[in-house]
Amino acid sequence: MDVRFPQIADQLLLIERELRVQGWWSDVSPSAEALASVEPFAVDTLDFEQWLQWIFLPRMKAILEQDLPLPNASGIQEMAEMVFAARNVQGKDRQLQVLLKEFDQLISDAS
C-alpha cells in the first residue's frame, strides 16, 4: 500500500465535506449518459461539482480500496480555478480550492 493512502483518504473526506457545506452535494445522480462522458472533467455533461461527487471521489475511493496505483499527477485545483473564475462565485469556492490543491500536492509527492 502506498504510504500516502491514509492522507489521501482524509483529503477525499474533506473535499466531500466541503461540497456538502457549500450545498454542492446532490442526492440525485446525473444520468448514465452524463456520467459516461469521455471529455476531461466531463465538461460537456456535468458541472464541476457533479464531476467531483460522481466521478472523481468514487474513482479515488476505488483506487484506495483496491490498492491500485495512484495517478502520476493531478491538476484538479487548476480546473477548479478556471471553473470558479468563470462563474464569479464570490469566494464560496476558496476552501474547496485549498483542499483540491492539497490533494494535487499529495499526488505529486511520490514516495
Report what the structure shows.
By secondary structure, the chain is mainly α. The protein has one domain (5-25, 41-108): Up-down Bundle (de novo design (two linked rop proteins)). Helix content is 59%, strand content 0%. The chain has five helices and no strands. It has helices at residues 5-21, 32-35, 48-65, 76-87, 94-108. Helix 1 runs antiparallel to helix 3 (48-65) and helix 1 (5-21) runs antiparallel to helix 5. The longest helix has 18 residues, at 48-65. It is globular and about 40 Å long. The mean pLDDT is 93.
Précis, in short:
The chain contains five helices and no strands. By secondary structure, the chain is mainly α. The protein has a single domain (5-25, 41-108), classed as YqcC-like (de novo design (two linked rop proteins), Up-down Bundle).
